[in-house]
Design goal:
10 strands, globular, D-Maltodextrin-Binding Protein, domain 2
Length: 339
């Protein structure tokens, strides 16, 4: 069933967050700021902190890779509970996380939607699914629940005239991104959520076409942001500034450099980090998709999802304000930035 899951449950009690923050060693005994940022990666992909490190933007800051994730909500949950220091997710998931009581702050945009970078929902050629109503009783493969793909799908169904009861009869199935195309072609699912490199590889093999896409529904926009805990920011203001500046410069680098140069750099990073990955998929990289220069966040990129979640009943009216969720204060590409 399509049901918006809470990103965090009891884990996000204030006491748990405080305890986890303390356990993570946010500051040293003498009040010194941390200079090592713990983060999660993505298989076969390069994150902006990794790019920033390779380009020399991090300065004296160091990265500590603690493993990989396939889920934005899991990544920001890990950030909120102190398992990592920074993580990114769909902005709607960040809104829900904040509404649940987590004291996190979005500091820079990291992925988005444009004509080159978008999430499409694909069916096999010849599929009987051709319109929203055809999805009743069908399965849609997504990478995680309660995030980007779920929000886009529910909007598509709503615009297609489905009632809440009918929407609830459409089943979202969590499938690892690398297996989603195969699941579609083997007819284990009826629709596959595909984006970026995996989408383009699937399209190159033919036999599928889009039923709907996020760019068709909403146009270009920055869809996800990186967050830090508010206590981390307060205890590590200089480190926060350096990290966000480096991150923003890495985003801008991908926005301003030739595609071939970005691909070459990404391949170099994947090869050097030695995680036994295939870098061939990087050839399909097209754009960052980030709307704002250097990942500067626009108010509407959170307000859109606040309004949507309020209409869906997942967030109470007035419970969350966009101004409380994000800040551009550390981004060097923001006019009037403190950076």
């Amino acid at each position: 069933m399509i049901r918006t899951r809470h990103v965090l449950l009891s884990l996000l009690l204030a006491g748990s967050l405080t305890a986890c923050s303390a356990a993570s060693g946010a500051t040293g005994s003498g009040g010194d700021e941390v200079t090592e940022i713990r983060y999660q990666g993505w298989v076969g992909q390069v994150t902006y902190p990794e790019l920033a490190e390779s380009l020399g933007y991090l300065g004296d800051l160091k990265l500590k890779w603690v493993g990989n994730t396939i889920s934005g909500p899991q990544d920001i949950q890990a950030t909120a509970t102190g398992q990592v220091d920074a993580g990114g997710a769909f902005n709607g998931a960040i809104v829900k996380l904040r509404a649940s009581g987590a004291r996190v702050k979005a500091v820079v945009g990291y992925y988005g939607v444009d004509k080159e970078s978008y999430t499409g929902f694909y069916v096999l050629d010849g599929s009987p699914v051709t319109k929203p109503r055809d999805l009743i009783g069908k399965k849609i493969g997504v990478n995680t629940l309660g995030a980007h793909s779920e929000a886009i799908t529910k909007e598509y169904l709503k615009r297609g005239g489905l009632t809440p009861e009918e929407v609830d009869k459409v089943e979202l199935v969590v499938v690892p991104p690398v297996n989603t195309e195969q699941a579609l072609r083997q007819k284990q699912i009826d629709v596959a959520s595909l984006s970026g490199i995996l989408r383009d590889k699937a399209l190159s093999r033919g036999g599928i076409h889009p039923l709907y896409t996020d760019v068709d529904l909403f146009g270009p926009f920055t869809a996800g942001s990186f967050v830090l805990r508010e206590d981390f920011i307060a205890e590590n203001p200089t480190t926060t500034k350096k990290f966000v500046q480096a991150f923003a410069k890495a985003v801008e680098w991908t926005q301003s450099r030739p595609r071939e140069e970005v691909i070459a750099k990404y391949k170099e990073i994947i090869t050097k980090r030695g995680r036994n990955e295939d870098a061939a998929t990087i050839d399909f990289w097209k754009s960052s998709g980030v709307a704002g220069k250097g990942g500067v966040i626009a108010d509407r990129e959170f307000q859109t999802w606040i309004d949507w979640l309020e209409r869906e009943g997942d967030v109470k009216p007035g419970q969350v304000k966009a101004a409380d969720i994000y800040t551009n204060a550390f981004n060097p590409f923001t006019s009037g930035s403190t950076s």
